Amino acid sequence: MLPSYDLIVVGAGHAGCEAALAAARMGVSVLVFTINADTIAQMSCNPAIGGLAKGHLVKEIDALGGAMGEVTDRCGIQFRRLNTSKGPAVRGTRVQCDKLLYHRLMKHRLENQPGIHLRQAMINRLLVENGRAVGVEDETGYRYRGRAVILTTGTFLNGLIHIGNFRQPAGRAGEFASRSLPADLRRLGLQLGRMKTGTPPRMLKASIDFSRLERQDGDPEPRPFSALTREISQPQLPCFLTKTTAATHDLLRRHIDQSPLYNGTISGVSARYCPSLEDKIIKFPHHDSHQVTLEPEGWETEEIYVKGLGNCLPVAVQEELFRTVPGLEAAVVCRPAYAIEYDFVLPTQLRNTLETRRIGGLYLAGQINGTSGYEEAAGQGIWAGINAACRLKGLPPFLLDRSEAYLAVMVDDLITRGTEEPYRMFTSRAEYRLLLREDNADLRLTAKAYQLGLVDKERAEICREKAERTAAGRKKLAAIRILPAQINDALAGRGTARIKEPTAADRLLKRPEIDLRLLAGGSPAVAALAAELGPAAAEQVEIQLKYQGYIDRQLQEIKKFKELEKKKIPDDFAYDGIPGLTNELLQKLETVRPASLGQASRLPGMTPAALSVLMIYLKKHRAGK
Description:
Blueprint lengths: L3 E7 L3 H12 L4 E5 L13 E3 L3 H10 L4 H8 E7 L9 E6 L1 H14 L3 E5 L2 E7 L2 E7 L4 E9 L8 E4 L2 E4 L10 H8 L4 E8 L2 E3 L9 E3 L22 E5 L2 H9 L22 H7 L7 E6 L6 E5 L7 H8 L10 E3 L2 E8 L16 E3 L9 H19 L13 H12 L23 H12 L4 H23 L1 E2 L1 H10 L9 E2 H5 L6 H7 L1 H23 L1 H19 L16 H10 L4 H5 L6 H17 L1
Parallel strand pairs: 1-2, 1-9, 2-6, 9-20
Antiparallel strand pairs: 3-5, 4-5, 7-8, 8-9, 10-11, 10-19, 12-19, 13-17, 13-18, 14-15, 15-16, 16-17, 21-22
């Protein structure tokens, strides 16, 4: 009899780990496959978690009980909050990590989570019966049964590494590529594409002249990702900055014909937003230099990650190229830069649960869906893991909309629009970003997570108390009157008008130039209230009051948005009989099969007139039913 599990997860990268942990927390038995158990949750490229918009994803994963944020807090070697001079919607947390410790901590999570079973094996094919995934077969021919399967294969599907003329099949440096599984996916009728990414070089710390570099320290008071982390107490490490030079650019141009990216060897599509050094210099010739960041990879390693020098030139050219960068003249390269291209599945073939429409019970998460980045992968992983568990337990699917989470924005973008390049999350992708901030991810999602068993009662209580303190804090602040003598000097110092009579503290806080700390400095009552609230609730009070007008406006926009989302389109709805729609739009509608008029409205090429026609025929369809 074949070994049988509720859920099989193929791949133990950032997507696979979060998928398995989420499903197991919901009481599902999970079998996790990895090609190499020593590289679980490997940080294949940069040793950092978070960043602009990516930090939002990590906060949301944490609010749903995911592990990425808490593990990052424990192995973070530098914490920085980005965009602090801008509005709260676009502020993001980025943490440099000890990458080896990250792997060890996440592996420990999987090994000690009840319901998860780990196995090292290469999966070659899916077992499908009556249109549903029912298991997998490994490279030895041994089979495993499962009621659902999640594929989180990263860059391993026909992965091919490029360094100059050297090419090597690999999922990443030193690891086997998966050759049989992508062929099996094509056999099953899934449409695949090809993408390219890369990783910069690593250099020996002792060989770098740091005296020529600009030091970049983290925040003096690190703010954790996870709501469960009370403080960051481990020692922090600095990063360093340098720049490419005219000599760097001249040398690269002379050898550009040796780059697989420019001589036609690489067919995969690369990302515009994260260009290689070749792309930076060739496509942006008006720039005299480009920033290079040197990031430590951990407390107990001498390797330095050199962000900004990613390329796929021959090793000899790389060595010569790096010596033209200030501070790297004598640098010793531990690992050369390389490019890797790999297969992915076009994500428009997925439902909003990340289940494939062609094969029931088969879910895809991570780079297999055409995305890039640890955070995007982990976000899809937890989304797929929750939905697979819901399906197995007979529960309704776990579906958020674009007004509720960055996770939903990402999933909706992928399944509705697809992607022609590695997809990366940006704050500009979220139309309701003022409501989808890092600081309120728990208030948006933790109650939902508690209902599904993803977080425990203690975690839900922490969130509930934060919400209650915030509401109470707004009322108390409105009741505090600040005297002119208490605050006028501070107001003048900030360049804002003085007050002539006692003024409500919440009214003063709405001024752009004023923050809660300034009011606390002039009013003992405000200072006492801020201490009573604590940092998290105090931050909520300030943001909600200061941006109340904008928030109210977005809430009205969301109300209209949800009206379209409520208008569901049945699975059996026929588009071919609708006049007035272009062939191109009809083809997109048939390919994507939108679940609602809201999703249909976001299809590329959809016009208000076409949407009106679609709405009319949808009403006729319902009347006929």
